[in-house]
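INFO worker-7 received task bundle
INFO bundle size: 2
INFO processing item 0
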Amino acid sequence: MEIGKKIISLRKQRGWTQYRLFKEAGISQSNLSRIEGGSLCPSYKQLCKLASALNVSVQVFESPNNTRKAEKPTELNTEQKDLLAKILDMPKDETFEIIAITIQQIKNLPADYQKALAKIIDSLRP
């Protein structure tokens, strides 16, 4: 199912209008309309905002070509939603600084830990 149709489906499951979703997600109504209509490919940040508003994981929007078995959408708990909101509201320079520090910490890990971490991160990709 394409992303726009998936968003419509999740929105309608909740009995929400487009107006409510764009207000909850904090994206423009025109962008939401274009995403749902398939004429705009959402950014990752927009998908995160939509997922948070709909209380689902971003993985819900995975490509249908993905070979993983379809799963029930994972709902985010309050702590996860709060953390996601903080990350999305963080200034870009602060975000890049945190990423740089994290990368340096990973580089300081033993090689086998780095490989294990790489496998975990790869498993999270849609």
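INFO item 0 finished
INFO processing item 1
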Amino acid sequence: MWSATSQTSRVFGWTDKLERWNSGSYPAEIRTVLDNLGSGRSFPSSHFFTYMNEEQDALKWFIFECIASSWQWQSAPRLSYIRDAVDLIENLDTTFPVFPGSPLQNQTVRGFLTRILDEEQLSFVEMMPPLVYTVRPASSSASAADTARYGVIRFHVLRDANNTSRDDIVTIRKESEETYSYTYTDKTSVAADKTWRHSGLNASQVMGLLSNMFNLLNIDAEPYYGLQVLLPTSPSVMLRAKDLTSSTRDMLYDSVENVMDSWPVAV
């Protein structure tokens, strides 16, 4: 079993491993993922994605197993894992690889999730592939036909170390050459709508919203557990509540501005 705080192993060649599993063998790497997924422990999703080398076929299989394990154990699907895996899949309108129980060519990833999840669960998962967000090369608005692909900036406010379903989430996306969107999801809100989106923002407006969030978290009377920071081309960083000092906030502002000044392109 993995440690709750660290998992640095990286495995390659998942398409072949899945095919061998389908042919009757049971690769140890497959068993490792399934054992950790079924352990009931809340590992960071990065543990799984690093181990699977973020390979596309492995991510699709992982999404299926997040659903299948809920059928097996009669529990709710691991939505936080599904959401994070969806972010890494380049095209949700492609089909599944070969593995035991695979929908194969009968369903796309998007179609499978749409059929299985209810409306609230789909809203949480957000199947607008955030890590392959597309924009026009000039200053016009984003379009699915565009070929330039961009990642997202994401912050997870962890209210409970053992329950990621209560995380608040901030997602910043590049919309065009000069504009960005800022989306806030408050999963513990009593309101019917738990997600709010600002669109067409310039960089200064985005930084202002981030500043407000950091300042409010810093004076929170009910301290949150931590803040997870996910930036394109950078490792995931976990901050404890006490770490969000003025100097740390300045480092976060600089990191976000660096991404916004030269947003990386997925290849």
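INFO item 1 finished
INFO post-check item 1: The mean pLDDT is 81.
INFO post-check item 1: The first strand starts at residue 133 and ends at 135.
INFO worker-7 idle
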